[in-house]
Specification:
Pseudouridine synthase; nine-stranded mixed sheet; 6 helices; Structural Genomics Hypothetical 15.5 Kd Protein In mrcA-pckA Intergenic Region, Chain A; 299 residues; alpha+beta; 3 domains
Length: 299
C-alpha cells in the first residue's frame, strides 16, 4: 500500500492527474482503472477520478501485484566483476533486461543470477526481483550490484536513497557539446504528451545530472561524455541530454535512433560504481570495461 498526503501547492489538481504525476509507475489511465476498482481510496472512502484534491487529503493506493511470472534459473553468461558472501557485481550486457516482467518472462539478469547464486539472493525486492537493488535500462550496459541477503540489500538501498553511491556513465551523444562540463538540474516526470515516455516536466521529481566532455569528434558531429547522476529517475540521463539538444546516439525513444554505425539502443555505459560495502563498510570502486561497439566507433 502506498500512501500520499496532499501538499498545499498541489491543491486543485484532479486526483487521477495528481497520482500519475507523483507515481512514475502509474499512468493516468491506470489510475482511473484503479479508482474504478476501488483500489484507490480518498480519506478511506471511494472517490471519482474528477475529484480535485485539497491539502492534507490522504490517498491510499493499493499496489498491484505483478502478473505471475514463472521465475527460473537460467545458465546465462555473466561477467562477474566482484563477488563475496553479501554482494555480487556484474557487467550487464547491452540488450539484457534486469528482471522478468510482462514481455520479458526470462533471459534476464535475475534468471542468470539465480543460476549462479542459487538461493543466496535477497528477498526484499519481491518475488520477481530477488537481489535487485537498482536497475539499468535494457540497452544500457555496465556495472550493476545485487544483494545476496536482506541486510546487504537494506544497507545498499539506504546508500542509494541518501545519494552516497557514485554512479559514473559514458555516453556518445549527437552534436558538439560546447561546455567542458555542466550540470542539468531539471525535474523529470511522466510525459504529458506520451505516457510511455519520461520528460522534463515542471511538476516532476528532482533530477540532477552532471557531465564533462571527454572528447569531441567534429567530423562526425559526436561528443563523448562522462556523466554522474545524483538522482536515479527513470531514463534520467537519456531525457536530460535529449532535452538540452544532445540525444544519445542510438536512442530509439528520445532520439530518432538513426546513426551511421548501426547502433541499436542508446550508446550509454555504466562505467563504474563507488559505494561502501554494505556489511564491512569498506570503500569500493568497481569498473566495467567499455563494450566492443564503443571501441569500434573509436576506430
Amino acid at each position: 500500500m502506498k500512501t500520499y498526503i496532499v501538499k498545499k501547492e498541489d491543491e486543485g489538481q484532479r486526483i487521477d492527474s495528481y497520482i500519475s504525476k507523483i507515481d512514475d509507475d502509474l499512468s493516468r489511465v491506470a489510475v482511473q482503472r484503479l479508482i474504478e476498482e476501488e483500489k484507490i481510496l480518498l480519506n478511506g472512502k471511494k472517490v471519482k477520478p474528477s475529484y480535485k484534491v485539497v491539502e492534507n487529503d490522504k490517498i491510499d493506493v493499493e499496489e498491484e501485484k505483478p502478473k505471475e511470472v514463472e521465475l527460473k534459473a537460467q545458465d546465462l553468461p555473466l561477467e562477474i566483476l566482484y563477488e563475496d558472501n553479501d554482494i555480487i557485481v556484474v557487467n550487464k550486457p547491452k540488450g539484457m533486461v534486469v528482471h522478468p516482467g510482462n514481455g520479458n518472462p526470462d533471459g534476464t539478469l535475475v534468471n542468470a543470477l539465480m543460476a549462479h547464486c542459487k538461493d543466496s539472493l535477497s528477498g526484499i525486492g519481491g518475488e520477481i526481483r530477488p537481489g535487485i537493488v537498482h536497475r539499468l535500462d535494457k540497452d544500457t550496459s555496465g556495472v550493476i550490484v545485487a544483494a545476496k541477503n536482506d541486510k546487504a540489500h537494506i544497507a545498499l538501498s539506504n546508500q542509494i536513497k541518501n545519494h552516497e553511491v557514485k554512479k559514473t556513465y559514458i555516453a556518445l551523444v549527437r552534436g558538439i557539446v560546447k561546455e567542458n562540463h555542466a550540470t542539468i538540474n531539471m525535474p523529470i516526470g511522466r510525459s504529458k504528451k506520451d505516457r510511455k515516455k519520461m520528460a522534463v516536466e515542471k511538476d516532476g521529481k528532482e533530477a540532477i545530472t552532471h557531465f564533462k566532455v571527454l572528447k569531441r569528434f567534429p567530423e562526425d558531429n559526436v561528443t563523448l561524455l562522462e556523466i554522474n547522476i545524483e538522482t536515479g529517475r527513470t531514463h534520467q540521463i537519456r531525457v536530460h541530454l535529449s532535452h538540452i539538444g544532445y540525444p544519445i546516439i542510438g536512442d530509439e525513444v528520445y532520439s530518432n535512433g538513426k546513426n551511421k554505425w548501426g547502433i541499436k539502443g542508446q550508446a550509454l555505459h555504466a562505467k563504474s560504481l563507488e559505494f561502501k560495502h554494505p556489511i564491512t563498510g569498506k570503500e569500493m570502486k568497481i569498473e566495467a570495461k567499455l563494450p566492443e561497439y564503443f571501441k569500434e566507433i573509436y576506430k
